[in-house]
Structures are given as C-alpha cells and as structure tokens.
Amino acid sequence: MFLMNGFMVGCWAPKIPEFAERLQLTKFELGLMILVFGVGSLVMMPLAGAQIAVRGSRVVMRAFAILLLPMILALTLAPNVWTAAVALFLFGGFIGAMDVAMNANAVSVEKSMRRAIMSSCHAFWSLGGLLGAAIGGLLISRWGILGHAEASTAIAVLFVAIAWPMVLGDQPHHDEAKPKAKLPMIPLPWLLGIVALFCMVPEGAVLDWSALYLSQEKGASVALSGFGYAAFSATMATMRFAGDFVRDWLGAIRTLRICTGFAIVGMLTAALAPNAEIAILGFAFCGIGISNMVPIAFSAAGNIPGLQPGISISVVTTLGYSGMLVAPSAIGFAAEHVGFSPVLMTLPVLLLVVLAFSSLARYADGIGDAKH
C-alpha cells in the first residue's frame, strides 16, 4: 500500500509540465494549483484520523486506496482549470488521508510483529515514487498522456489487489476520537518541527518543480525530465532501507549532520548544473541527504522527556508536511520572476538552519529519557 501511494505521487511528477501547458498556466498559477493539492491533504488528514479512531486503519486505508485509483485519469481528462483544481484537491486529499491510515496500520503491524518496520514502509513509498516517475516520462513519450494515465492506473490497481487480502485488521480506538491534549508550551517540539519543515521544503521542491526545471531551463526531453524526481526517489529509498542500520552505527546527531551535508551539496549541484544530466545527479545526492533527516526528527519528537509522544509528533508532522505542501506555491511565484535556478540556490540556507539545530537529534537516541 505504501508502494501504491508513492507510485501515484511519482506518476504525477512527470505529468506536471503537460498539465501546465494544457491548461495554459504560468508558474505562479501552477504554484496555486499545487497549493490546492496541499490544502486537500491538510483538510483530509484530520478526517482520516477521526475515521481511523471509529473504524480502524484497515477499513480507512482500503477505502481511500479505492478512491485514489482513478485520480491520475481524472487529472488527465480535466477539461478546464476549475475541474482540474477539484481533481487536484481530491488527489491531494486522498493521498494524505491514505498516508495517515497507512502509517497507523504500520504502527499496528509493528506492535503485532514486535519489531520496527516503519523505515522500510517509507522506503517502499520512495520506491513507488521512483517507479512512477521513472516510467512516467517514458510512457508519456511512447503512448501519450492518456496511455500513461491508463497504464499507471492499471499498475496501481494491481498493487492494491496484491495487498488487499494481506492488510492487518486492527481494532478501532474510540478513546482517540476526541483528543484532549493541548499544544506543548516548551520549545523543543516546535524547534524539531522547524527541522522537519526545513527538511521537507526541498523535498516538495524536487517533487513539484524538478521536471519543469529540467525541461524549461536545462532543455531536457519529456522522458528525461521525469528522471530528476526518479533519481531523488531512488537514492532516498536506498538510504531509507539502510537508515536504521546507519543510525545505530553513527548515532542520530552524526547521521543528521552527514545527511544535511549531502542535501546541501546535492541542491547546489542541481541549481548550478550546466546541463540536465548533472542536475539529475544533484537531485540524487539531495535524496541521499533528505532520506533520513525527517525520520530522525520524528524519532526525536517521540523521545522528548516529560512530553507525550503523540503531542510532540503531531506538532512535528503538521509543521513538516505544511512545508512540503504549501512552500512549492511560493517557489512557483519566485521562479516566475527569477527562474528556478536562483530559487534552488536559496534552499540550502534552510538546511544550514537544520545543521544549527542538529544537536536536538540526541533525543532520537533516547538521551535524557529512561526509554530508548
């Protein structure tokens, strides 16, 4: 199910240039459309959480997986800006709602298996993004936009059909339907939220703008332009599969600092690249860096002494995802005036802030708490 969700996002990435051209959108207008995607996610995520509390995550995950299946076709067949905006709102909403249900179900699987599997689940999400982005440009150039939409939908149906009978059934948690927790007053979860936010803004930038950047400013073909996000997803998936081992070996602080260094070098390489191939290599380096930065922030939030993990993680998640969902529209507005390359060059400044806060990663190792 993680693979299918990531695959649908990956299929969207190489469609963006055609989507903008068909609807005659400027960069700023496309940024607003992408903002609609983000608003859909932010609206649907809490609704999914409430339904999970009442019905359990398996029912909710299956329902939103079914709703998500036709959305690439809907985006392809949308005849005007208004129907495209509605389709994007629903696409973002179903992606986000299914994401919440998947993670809730993965927690239940971890409890039943009594071992960690979350990092691998997120690696499969990245693998799905890689697969969707890698084949997207090739299918579009060979079979056209509609052919790509039909083929990607068929592949997504196959993923859901394979996973459907094996999804773990969990019990609803009615006591969680009306959370009474207040926002934390101590600065630690908010600082970790800023870390997650500044890690996920570059991720959102690569997802939403790499194809357009490669095609418009680096002269990449339709097939090649999809490989920016594909390379990013490939290295991210690989490093997420290895993430638990690397963190146990180096410790969370050192892992976060090394990852941030890779992300800074990668983003600068992509921004200053003389051609599309070097830019794609830069996005690949960026994927190595971003891969384990957000999981470390989430782990640290869950280990803050004297604070319930659910409260702090909710702060970090909300801040982090708002960066990934809302910031791309600002990037589109800026790129409309100065181009993508200067905008990409400013993103490492955010990563320098992450580097400054990197000592907070010690909580991911359980330092300062009795539990690890």
From TrEMBL:
<dbReference type="InterPro" id="IPR011701">
    <property type="entry name" value="MFS"/>
</dbReference>
<keyword id="KW-0812">Transmembrane</keyword>
<feature type="transmembrane region" description="Helical">
    <location>
        <begin position="278"/>
        <end position="298"/>
    </location>
</feature>
<keyword id="KW-0472">Membrane</keyword>
<dbReference type="InterPro" id="IPR036259">
    <property type="entry name" value="MFS_trans_sf"/>
</dbReference>
<keyword id="KW-1133">Transmembrane helix</keyword>
<feature type="transmembrane region" description="Helical">
    <location>
        <begin position="220"/>
        <end position="243"/>
    </location>
</feature>
<feature type="transmembrane region" description="Helical">
    <location>
        <begin position="123"/>
        <end position="145"/>
    </location>
</feature>
<feature type="transmembrane region" description="Helical">
    <location>
        <begin position="255"/>
        <end position="272"/>
    </location>
</feature>
<protein>
    <submittedName>
        <fullName>MFS family arabinose efflux permease</fullName>
    </submittedName>
</protein>
<feature type="transmembrane region" description="Helical">
    <location>
        <begin position="151"/>
        <end position="169"/>
    </location>
</feature>
<feature type="transmembrane region" description="Helical">
    <location>
        <begin position="59"/>
        <end position="78"/>
    </location>
</feature>
<dbReference type="InterPro" id="IPR051788">
    <property type="entry name" value="MFS_Transporter"/>
</dbReference>
<feature type="transmembrane region" description="Helical">
    <location>
        <begin position="30"/>
        <end position="47"/>
    </location>
</feature>
<feature type="transmembrane region" description="Helical">
    <location>
        <begin position="190"/>
        <end position="214"/>
    </location>
</feature>
<dbReference type="Pfam" id="PF07690">
    <property type="entry name" value="MFS_1"/>
</dbReference>
<feature type="transmembrane region" description="Helical">
    <location>
        <begin position="84"/>
        <end position="102"/>
    </location>
</feature>
<feature type="transmembrane region" description="Helical">
    <location>
        <begin position="343"/>
        <end position="364"/>
    </location>
</feature>
<feature type="transmembrane region" description="Helical">
    <location>
        <begin position="310"/>
        <end position="331"/>
    </location>
</feature>
